[in-house]
Amino acid sequence: MKSLEELKQLRESLQKDMLARNSAGKARIVIGMGTCGIAAGAREILQAVLQEVKTRGLDVIVSQTGCIGMCEKEPLLDVQLPGKDRITYGNVKKEDVSRIIVEHLINGNIVEDLVVARLEEGGE
Amino acid sequence: MDTIIYRSHVLICTGTGCVSSGAGKLKEKLTAELEERGLQKEIKVVDTGCHGFCEKGPIVIVYPEGVFYCQVTEDDINDIVEEHLLKGRIVERLLYKEPLTEESIPSYNDIDFYKKQKRIALANCGRINPESINEYIAVGGYEALGKALTEMTPDEVIAEVKNAGLRGRGGAGFPTGLKWELTRREESDKKYLICNADEGDPGAFMDRSLLEGDPHKIIEGMVIAAYAIGADEGYIYVRAEYPLAIHRLEVALEQAAELGLLGENILGSGFNFTLNIKKGAGAFVCGEETALMASIEGKRGMPRPKPPFPSVSGLWGKPTNINNVETFANVPYIISQGAAAYSAIGTEKSKGTKVFALTGKINNTGLVEVPMGITLREIIYDIGGGLRDGKDLKAVQTGGPSGGCIPADLLDLPIDYESLTEVGAMMGSGGMVVMDDSTCMVDVARFFLSFTQSESCGKCTPCREGTKRMLEILDRICAGEGREGDLELLEELGQHIKETSLCQLGGSAPNPVLSTLKYFRAEYEAHIMDKRCPANVCEGMKSAYVIDQSVCIGCTLCTRVCPVDAISGERKKPHYIDPEVCIACGACAEKCPVAAISQG
Prior knowledge:
The complex is a heterodimer.
Chain A: H1 4-18, E1 28-32, H2 35-39, H3 42-56, E2 61-65, E3 77-80, E4 86-89, H4 94-106, E5 115-119
Parallel strand pairs in A: 1-2
Antiparallel strand pairs in A: 1-3, 3-4, 4-5
Helix pairs in contact in A: 3-4
Chain B: E1 8-13, H1 16-20, H2 23-36, E2 43-48, E3 60-63, E4 67-69, H3 74-87, E5 96-97, E6 104-105, H4 112-115, H5 133-138, H6 143-151, H7 154-164, H8 176-185, E7 192-197, H9 206-213, H10 215-229, E8 233-239, H11 243-258, E9 274-280, H12 289-296, E10 320-324, H13 325-337, H14 339-343, E11 353-360, E12 366-371, H15 376-383, E13 393-398, E14 404-407, H16 417-422, E15 431-436, H17 441-455, H18 461-478, H19 486-500, H20 504-508, H21 511-519, H22 521-529, E16 545-547, H23 557-561, E17 567-568, E18 576-577, H24 587-591, E19 597-599
Parallel strand pairs in B: 1-2, 7-8, 7-10, 8-9, 11-15
Antiparallel strand pairs in B: 1-3, 3-4, 5-6, 11-12, 13-14, 13-15, 16-19, 17-18
């Protein structure tokens, strides 16, 4: 490196990898990965989400959860924006992932036709 | 560069503490389990430096949630992968439990041990991989260096450090900016910069943790200092007993040189600086700056009289600036955040934070970084979780073998350089040993003095002979052979040694004795007059154990463990200990299933 500018550029390109180590005030995507979820194809959904997060360079938390009892609606995908209700989408297909991310996560509009449940903020 | 974006990072502490409690095998096992489930492209496994909470090690932290798992064994890895990483459920049984409330705390930042800390020097320790310069740069590393080299003159750097109020973290508390200025002012064709990592106080390990957990921060601080004083070559003097610290430093030096952050024309500024590692053989006196420089020169590590000070004539007779590891660790923060942000933390004369190694009879032992001016009470009860078994605090020893004991009634003392010196203790490198009533203060003083006595280099008489005589007197007192006049003699000797020793090893060696004499004189007197050790520690003065005849069930367990056959009695009938034979080792009391045995 020959200048402070180069150092700053390097830092920017490296920073993304460290985003996962900070959870404060971030949106969350939670995927149901119980036996039922995995059987219904949740792994594919998770991979599609990760791909989408990567290509769009989003700073969100992607995590997994177990069975919550709505097995017939699996794969389930929850989106929770900071301070907003936790929205559960059901029977999610691979093609739906990018729509949910663009509409809900980025633009803040809930994709109503896929919603199967909502939890008020603070509820679990 | 790695282009995979992982959804979760699992951080495994690989500091010396966690490695010795078994962290080495965790990574292997975790990597294998992740591969088995095809998760290796979603989950990243990262080695980190020390989190400071070594007692609870091995420590594993799972991000993005920041869940803190402690005392993780190989057998727990399966649960972490299966439950947490696959299903997103926290493994409750591995969470930290607060000692006072028994409550399980999932998140790193909510644990009392961390809540009251203010981490500047240790900010990255446990959060980044110390062997990756990329992670250091990603969290803002080397930007302070860039700023100093391209936007500031050396005088401006010195002014910033002076205004920040940074003082030497090795213990003496000399203003760092002033030290730099003195070396800068010297005219010379060559100047040296040295990092003193010859950490030797028993129980203190903050320098090791910094070097192991965030070596790049020390390097960055050193390059900034070298630029300020005009040095083109530096040494890190680190003891050979710190193999992991040396390894991580070597890796870091290589990476920094590769990116042009060390060597010629750093960041295009025209400034050159090369850095060497010098491994010390572990003599305590080599932490003294003139002895340290003699050791680098290949001579026997012994101090010499000052002046001339190192800033005038140091390593190989050239102007030299020496600072402690923790001092350098504060420099990047001061340059990037500014003097005002730094000096907003702390007290009037002591700015910033200090790292303490908390040990002894306390629930949470480990490394803590706290703002100057915090009280002992906050450190011991809020961060340290109080004393073990709910016992009462008797005293706190600070500053290691150069420091002193602070009695429990000074618990609300705000800690800074001045206040500690005022009560007869010392900041020192930051050791903090917590003691309860089962600690004998005479024995403690004797322990520290025996350490300094055996580490005395022998060059000057007061230290060589004086500490030897003091130790003989203490040995006598502890053996129950103390005489009238011993205490006065100890005080007189102590004062003389302090005033006439060549270096600070001797100059501070009597402190543990003098401060305990000041605050716990009655305990010394009990040893001498009554031939009694109130804490029942000193051999030869321990009182014999007795069996409560009404409680004893005659199980005979005690007779079997007694090493001197002092216990007699028939099966199923109360037993008896012969006080003439008993050596008060306590083995019987430990074995007794009904707690019938106690010290009489």
